[in-house]
Amino acid sequence: MTNHWVDIKNADLVLVMGGNAAEAHPCGFKWAIEAKKDRKAKLVTVDPRFTRSAAVSDYYAPLRAGSDIAFLGGVIHYLLANDKIHHDYVKHYSNAAFLINPGFKFEDGLFSGYNAEKRNYDKATWSYQLDKDGFAMVDESLQDPNCVFQLLKKHYSRYTPELVNKVTGTPKEQFLKVCEYIADTAAPDKTMTILYALGWTQHSKGSQNIRTMAIIQTLLGNMGMAGGGINALRGHANVQGITDMCTFGANLPGYLTCPTDADPDRKTYLEKRTPKPLRPGQMNFPQNYPKWFTSLCKAWYGNAATKENDFCYDWLPKLAGAQDTLAMFDRMHQGKMNGFVCQGFNPLASVSNKKKVGDALAKLKYLVVIDPLVTDTSEFWKPHGEFNEADPAKIATEVFRLPSTLFAEQTGSYTNSGRVIQWHWKAADGPGESRDDIDIVAGLFLKLKAMYAKDGGKFPDAIMGLTWAYRQPARPSPEELLQEISGKALGDVFDPKDATKVIVPAGQQIAGFAQLRDDGSTSCGNWIYGGCWSQAGNLTARRDNSDPSGLGQTLNWGFAWPANRRIIYNRASCDLSGKPWDPKRAVLRWTGTAWGGNDIPDMRPDAAPDQNVMPFIMTPEGVARLFAPGMAEGPFPEHYEPFETPLEKNPFSPNNPKTLSNPAARVYKADMEVFGKAKDFPYVCTTYRLVEHYHFWTKHSKLNAITQPEQFVEIGEELAKEKGIANGDKVKVRSNRGFIKAVAVVTKRIPTLMIDGRKTHTVGIPIHWGFKGLTKPGFITNTLTPYVGDANSQTPEYKAFLVNIEKA
Amino acid sequence: MALQSLDIARRSATTTPAPGARQTTEVAKLIDVSTCIGCKACQVACMEWNDLRDEVGNCVGVYDNPADLTDKTWTVMRFAEVEQGGRLEWLIRKDGCMHCADPGCLKACPAPGAIIQYANGIVDFHQENCIGCGYCVTGCPFNIPRISKEDSKAYKCSLCSDRVAVGQAPACVKTCPTGAIMFGSKEQMKEHADKRIRDLKSRGFANAGLYDPQGVGGTHVMYVLHHVDKPQLYSDLPKDPAISPLVSLWKGMAKPLASLALGAVALGSLFHYVMKGPNEVSKESEREAEKEESQ
Fold it and tell me: Has residue B90 got a pLDDT over 60?
């Protein structure tokens, strides 16, 4: 979230789209209800299903699963065509005025630079026009045909309400009604918050779903404002935390990126990642990348990391190719992986195409499962009737189960969706032989180190040289780990303005990432967490909920990354002169000498407004990107169909067969071959979560099992009638990858939509069942889902694919 | 099982005058259906606080689970899909005991002290006095009490009288993530309901209102409904609930007959005493039964 949970209460409009906040985040959803009750806010839900969120909304509009960009592109068109944008904000705080390379083109669904064979783009033309000093050129009148604003207008002029209706199935008047709600928040003193989750990410163009909304929020001037922002609702209890700590194989902690084969040395690595400002006087905060990266190397390799040896850069693995979940299991499936350590992860149930995952696991020599529960994955080899037709005689994989403690049996920190890191204390000891995850991993590491010491090996340095200065090496304490993550001075740290003045003496915890250095004098395990455990102690353990502004900022509750800032881009909540756009919800203001107010400024504190330092300090241009060249499939989001689609042509580029689905998404050949066609699998299917369960854990809990005991499939009344399926009947749902059987829930809440002139039905399937647990045994829903991911994040397309259904 | 901090106002099949020295605030639970997301956290909190674990059931084609109230399920969410003026609504109502001011169950109950009403308005079942006759089921206009197959006694929501007795809100209220379930004095709850109803009317629900049916003297569990004119939409919430005429019949003509039956129970208790030894509860119910018979 750019904002935070409590801040939802400050919104005038709460839009729930690409998620189902009431269902998946019931506790946080209280703030949406607060906004309704206390601020008279409107709540609007857009979803293929009439959800629990829709049940308490002022307005609901349906759309077909996988058509969000068409819908949101239509909103952009509406805002521009009806002049419902925040003009001053757009002009100054976005790249609307920036001039783009005249070679940039968009034709027939493709942007310039496409390589059909490689399924990727050469992005050379997706660039700003630069002046002789290397700064981007702008046209403040926004009239130049090559300026971002004009290109944006042109791109989305195609997203007419009629075409939106044809693709999304949203009735035109309902689409326009949602547009009106959204457009109202273009007023400088009105804000919309958007609550989304996996309903936007789990598509072959998931990142672009979110980008489209980022464009809308920028046009409306809702970024940086109380009650605004782009708010990803993350999973319980610590999905934000593991993401920050690099759950993605291509990342290092704090969203630094892994070195690759193309970065043979530290200098090359850093040069590519340390941008120069694209406009004069901008903060260009990523210019500090070398400080973050060097401090990370020092945290890992300590005294072994010296300036002379490039801080052990050579010890870091260099990625060759993709390291995401789909790529990993594909390699495993090809027999190119021997072992797999699976910690807090149940891939047999949670990765798409269960058959492929099961076959892949069967090719391993060994599988280590670290989990508090008996996961389905740990029994992938065991026959469980129709639910898991495995043949142990043919599987040689050795499976080790290492029981870990549950979250409530551990001390440590959680990071919530609002980036607030909160310390927690264990409530009980774990049962039996269970151990904390930290202890298990420490045990594995020490054993590995001892083996290297005894037997040697090809490359022992990275293991032997790793810093491990914990009081009890086999049991590092969560406190020691958070101190290490937060960072400390290894030598005296000096004031950059006065080289004689020590600001952090050697040995002390740093107060924030601004004190990190690239000369080896500081160490920090994750720069964005810098200062969360300062000399003042563990700031994440603070529990002072005083809220002087009434905005719910509570700056002394836990610690929000970065820098305890609660609303990111908060400089944008003020006009150019530093006055809040909405004085009633002032987050920040220029006091005459410094930025101050109800948050930690996202700005150099002494940057006077007349210095024109723009609010989006993490971009080299200082402004928000309406045009974003970093994306894999184009700088403007374009609608592409899901890889399994009921349509034969993409209505936005009907003459180009290459652009039916995301042209830049990576698809493995064998997976492409098992995509189903609409003639065999005519129904759009989408998978989701229920409030009664959490993923595949709570099927092991009796209370959860009582409240939602048995697997079911939801269909609309019209489809049920066509198929002769009655409420409560057992049905079989098939995709081209397999089938599941479940109870039919026939409901008015799944509308039949008219897509491109044809009636289109949706089948909805909750994911929570499996063959282990206290619920009635069920099928793994991901038996059905396609093995293809988003072009940027590789998050699988769980939300839109094709199935057929019949009475079982 | 009487709670020291709660005075008893009425007791089934008993004429002993109620205590009157202390003043007690009338309490109420307010369920704002318009902000309820049907998450069932209240069901889970109820099971946890009251040590209830029902069977792991089946999906019967709806979200309602368990599918109905039982002796081990004292509250359930009931989900209704209705179309109002061309607009779909998913009306989710937390069902359970309404704690009527004029409780049909208590009136119908022949077992002395099996059903009591506290001065604060809570209607509670004291199972140790229950004879399992099922009259409370007939007496209830909301179809709430359930007779256990294990011990043949009636069970239902106690409004967490044990929690309320020590100044705590009921478990469902404490856990409700959206604040849709509230608890306080009946007066406060009505005021709060007024605010919510004004908000709902401003959002186009012209018939929003408070469900506090007067046919049973008002209730200590009240609903804010978007359509108070049509409570039936909410999984058959009765429009004008009243105590069944059968209960009046019982209170009139049939009572002597039933008393005779009670006498048999008392005799049974005596045998029990002789054969199994003293039992506090039985002795008490024996005395109560004798008292009832002497009237």
Answer: yes
How far is CA B183 from each of CA B98, B118, B220, B223, rounded to the nearest angstrom?
13, 16, 10, 12
Q: Residue B23: which pLDDT band, with cuts at 50, 70 and 90?
A: confident
Mean pLDDT of A767-773: 96
A712: left (phi > 0), else alpha (psi -120 to 50), else beta? beta
- Per the document, the length of chain A is 808
Pairing relationship of beta strands A120-121 and A192-196 according to DSSP bridges = unpaired
Q: Where are the beta strands (DSSP E) in chain B?
A: 8-11, 27-32, 76-84, 87-95, 115-118, 123-125, 146-147, 154-155, 181-185, 209-211, 221-225
Q: What is the pLDDT of residues A268-302, one digit of tens each?
A: 999 999 999 999 999 999 999 999 999 999 999 99
> B58 and A776: CB-CB below 8 Å?
yes
In a domain, A720, yes or no: yes
- Positions of E strands within A420-561: 420-424, 488-489, 493-495, 498-504, 522-523, 533-534, 537-538, 559-560
Q: Are A420 and A386 in contact (CB under 8 A)?
A: no
B202 touches A: beta carbon within 8 Å: yes
CA distance B58 to chain A (A): 6
* CATH at residue A756: 2.40.40.20
Closest by Cβ to B90, choosing from A33, A40, A55 = A55
Q: For the structural domain made of B8-246, what CATH number should be given?
A: 3.30.70.20
User: What number is the ipTM of this complex?
Assistant: 0.96
Structural domain boundaries of chain B? 8-246, 252-294
Q: Which of A205, A235, A265 is the last residue of a domain?
A: A235
Residues in chain A closer than 8 A to B59 (CB atoms): 708-712, 728, 743, 745
Residues A45 and A192 in one domain: yes
What confidence tens digit (pLDDT) does each residue in A597-630 have? 999 999 999 999 999 999 999 999 999 999 999 9
Query: Which residue among B35, B57, B81 places its CB closest to the CB of A33?
Result: B35
Considering only CB atoms, B37 lies closest to which of A22, A705, A774, namely: A22
**Cβ <8 Å between B44 and A703:** yes
Residue A750 burial (C-beta neighbours within 10 Å; 0-12, 13-18, 19+):
buried
- Listing DSSP states for A223-271 in one string gives TTSTT-SEEE-PPTTTHHHHHHTT-STTEEGGGEE--BTT--SHHHHHH
Q: Are residues A229 and A337 in the same domain?
A: no
Domain housing A702? 657-807
pTM score, whole prediction: 0.95
- Is the separation of the CB atoms in A676 and A802 below 8 Å? yes
Q: Which of B42, B90, B94 to mutate to test the interface with A (most CBs of A within 10 A)?
A: B90
Neighbour count for residue A161 (Cβ, 10 Å): 17
Contact A232, A195 (CB under 8 A): no
> Maximum Cα–Cα distance for chain B, whole Å?
69
Tens digit of each residue's pLDDT (9 = 90 or more) over A736-758:
999 999 999 999 999 999 999 99
Helix ranges (DSSP H) in A40-122 = 52-55, 68-81, 87-93
User: Distance from B59 to chain A by nearest Cα, in Å?
Assistant: 5
Size of the A and B interface in Cβ pairs below 8 Å: 122
The whole-number pLDDT of residue A418 equals 97
User: Is the Cβ pair B90, A749 closer than 8 Å?
Assistant: yes
Cβ atoms within 10 Å of A181's Cβ, excluding its own: 19
Q: Do A205 and A336 lie in a common domain?
A: no
The β-bridge relationship of strands A13-17 and A192-196 is parallel
Measured distance CA(A201)–CA(A34) in Å, rounded: 27
**Mean per-residue pLDDT for A162-188?**
98
A450 within a domain of the structure (yes/no): yes
Comparing alpha-carbon positions, the chain B residue that sits nearest to A714 is B61
In this prediction, residue B258 carries a pLDDT of 55
